[in-house]
């Protein structure tokens, strides 16, 4: 519950000194900054761990058996304004023999006095089936329901074949490509379907026990436009307490518009240090 009350300066100081520690954190803003620090720390750790996960580049791409996690958050504001916020997200992987599956989902619900209640849903799937140690078939799909976006529904599904050009424990490279279909429905319930193609490359090289290089490339094309992304990164494990990742990401849109550049580039640096 949030109550907006004005006090004189002396009264405000007395209030802060008299309330419990957790209430002081909320009043002084410490709690909010702590949450932001946690968000940044989690994002950096996830970036480093995902880029240095050799199982993602291995034959199946996921570990055998089930593995996953789910996160849930909820909040209710009452006072000068009223709002409810509910968020849930999760990932899961399943490896069974020559089959591998990867699932992801997220749901967000927001209801406030100022706006109408909105519900956003997101889902992803990636699967593969190996015929030989190097040749495999794959399927990928994603779906978005965003009631506040120009496109209320945006979905894509594709299938194809992949091949592992290099297939060593510390050095792997696979490429895959195939046709796909995109479906869009805007806020006026006008739907559009268009055929396209997808092409991807995943490269991983463990130079030493402490240094690894990754390069992820994806191309998604259709009659509307072609979007290509490339994410090149180097991970350094300087010690058990210091890990660094340097990355360079480029994204090219063949139909970015007259007022926008067709290519965006991002240079990233992530550092995690424990003491």
UniProtKB/TrEMBL annotation:
Keywords: Signal. This is Salt-stress induced outer membrane protein. The gene is SspA. InterPro entries: DUF481, OMP/PagP_B-barrel. Pfam families: DUF481 (PF04338). Transmembrane segments: none annotated. Residues 1-23 form the signal peptide. It comes from Paramylibacter ulvae. It comes from the Bacteria.
């Amino acid at each position: 519950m949030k109550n907006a009350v004005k006090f004189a300066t002396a009264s405000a100081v007395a209030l802060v000194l008299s309330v419990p520690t957790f209430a002081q954190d909320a009043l002084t803003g410490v709690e909010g900054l702590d949450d932001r620090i946690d968000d940044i720390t989690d994002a950096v750790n996830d970036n480093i761990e995902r880029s240095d996960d050799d199982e993602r580049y291995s034959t199946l791409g996921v570990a055998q058996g089930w593995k996953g996690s789910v996160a849930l958050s909820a909040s209710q504001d009452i006072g000068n304004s009223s709002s409810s916020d509910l968020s849930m997200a999760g990932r899961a992987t399943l490896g069974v023999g020559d089959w591998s599956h990867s699932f992801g989902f997220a749901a967000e619900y927001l209801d406030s006095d100022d706006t109408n209640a909105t519900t956003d849903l997101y889902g992803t799937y990636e699967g593969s089936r190996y015929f030989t140690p190097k040749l495999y078939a794959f399927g990928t799909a994603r779906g978005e329901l965003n009631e506040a976006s120009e496109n209320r529904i945006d979905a894509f599904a594709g299938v194809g074949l992949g091949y592992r050009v290099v297939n060593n424990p510390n050095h792997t490279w696979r490429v895959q490509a195939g046709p796909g279909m995109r479906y869009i429905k805007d806020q006026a319930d006008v739907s559009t379907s268009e055929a396209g193609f997808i092409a991807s490359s995943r490269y991983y090289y463990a130079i030493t026990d402490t240094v690894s290089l990754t390069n992820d490339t994806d191309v998604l094309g259709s009659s509307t436009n072609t979007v290509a992304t490339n994410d090149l990164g180097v991970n350094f494990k300087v010690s058990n307490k210091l890990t660094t990742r340097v990355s360079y990401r480029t994204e090219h849109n063949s139909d970015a518009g007259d007022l926008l550049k067709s290519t965006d580039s991002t240079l990233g640096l992530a550092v995690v240090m424990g003491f």
